[in-house]
């Protein structure tokens, strides 16, 4: 028997096929077949900025001390469908940071939970973030919150409250928004995107616009099916790879 969740997922999948056939099947520009989807995604996002500096992280890297990072979020943080932790966005990010900053030391805690929401993340801050005493927190959010049926203001205030909790604990913050995949495109994603971006601006924290990052790759000719997993909701290996490397390079830029 199908649960309510399964019914919603099946409806969203069907709606995505109906509403976005051009996105799924027709590239907007010529796609360089010799380059992987991740490489093209990386190339069109090479100048992506987090919009804020990371002075604490910069000081730790400069002193060659251990940087403690906690990644909090849902399935994108867990790395759903990736069997190798090195292929999650955090694993790719760590490899790229070590390449870009020789001698850097870091410890990354994955506090992702499949199906989690913004209120669920915040409820876990004490046990799954603060208990690890992080220097830097990467908070990925939004993919599971489209069923709230709340106003944009309500969403925004919850995110701002979470940011303020993280700040009070002393950590620097990078927000990460939703993935650009067919099932997300079939939701009220714009409301969530606006809330996350506005919260980042108001609180002056770093922000990785993952949705726009992946969208730019599709506009450059990468098939959306190359960046999305088989379920149409989560990222593929190429999506995780691009996210991790773009984030690492944006972090390095934010250290200067």
Give a brief description.
Helix 9 (152-168) links the parallel strand 3 and strand 4. Helix content is 52%, strand content 11%.
Overall mean confidence score, pLDDT: 87
Largest sheet: 5 strands, parallel
Distance between the termini: 55 Å
Strand-pairing-aware structural class: alpha/beta
Can you characterise this structure?
- With 256 residues, the protein is of the alpha/beta class.
- 52% of the residues lie in helices and 11% in strands.
- The protein contains 14 helices and five strands.
- It has helices at 4-19, 21-25, 37-44, 55-63, 75-78, 89-100, 118-123, 125-128, 152-168, 182-185, 189-203, 210-219, 224-227, 237-255, and strands at residues 66-73, 105-112, 136-140, 172-176, 206-208.
- Strands 2-1-3-4-5 form a five-stranded parallel β-sheet, with helices on both faces.
- Helix 3 runs parallel beside helix 14 (237-255) and helix 6 (89-100) crosses helix 14.
Keywords summarizing the entry:
256 residues; alpha/beta; five-stranded parallel beta sheet; 14 helices; 5 strands; globular; disordered N terminus
Write the layout of secondary structure elements.
Elements: H1 4-19, H2 21-25, H3 37-44, H4 55-63, E1 66-73, H5 75-78, H6 89-100, E2 105-112, H7 118-123, H8 125-128, E3 136-140, H9 152-168, E4 172-176, H10 182-185, H11 189-203, E5 206-208, H12 210-219, H13 224-227, H14 237-255
Helix pairs in contact: 3-12, 3-14, 6-14, 9-11
């Amino acid at each position: 028997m199908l649960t309510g969740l399964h019914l919603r997922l099946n409806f969203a999948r069907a709606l995505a096929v109906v509403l976005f056939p051009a996105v799924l099947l027709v590239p907007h520009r010529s796609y360089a077949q010799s380059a992987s989807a991740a490489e093209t995604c990386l190339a069109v996002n090479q100048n992506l900025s987090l919009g804020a500096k990371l002075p604490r992280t910069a000081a730790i890297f400069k002193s060659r001390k251990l940087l403690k990072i906690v990644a909090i979020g849902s399935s994108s943080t867990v790395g759903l469908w990736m069997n190798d932790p090195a292929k999650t966005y955090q694993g790719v990010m760590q490899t790229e940071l070590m390449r870009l900053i020789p001698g850097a030391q870091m410890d990354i805690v994955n506090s992702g939970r499949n199906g989690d929401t913004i209120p669920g993340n915040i409820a876990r801050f004490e046990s799954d973030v603060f208990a690890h005493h992080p220097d830097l927190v990467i908070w990925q959010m939004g993919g599971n919150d489209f069923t709230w049926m709340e106003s944009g203001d309500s969403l925004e205030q919850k995110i701002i409250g979470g940011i303020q909790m993280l700040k009070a604990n002393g950590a620097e913050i990078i927000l990460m928004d939703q993935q650009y995949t067919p099932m997300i495109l079939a939701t009220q994603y714009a409301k969530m995107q606006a809330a996350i971006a506005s919260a980042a601006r108001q609180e002056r924290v770093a922000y990785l616009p993952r949705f726009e990052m992946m969208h730019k790759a599709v506009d450059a000719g990468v098939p959306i099916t190359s960046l999305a997993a088989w379920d149409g909701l989560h990222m593929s290996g190429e999506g995780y790879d691009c996210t991790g490397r773009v984030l690492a390079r944006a972090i390095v830029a934010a250290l200067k």
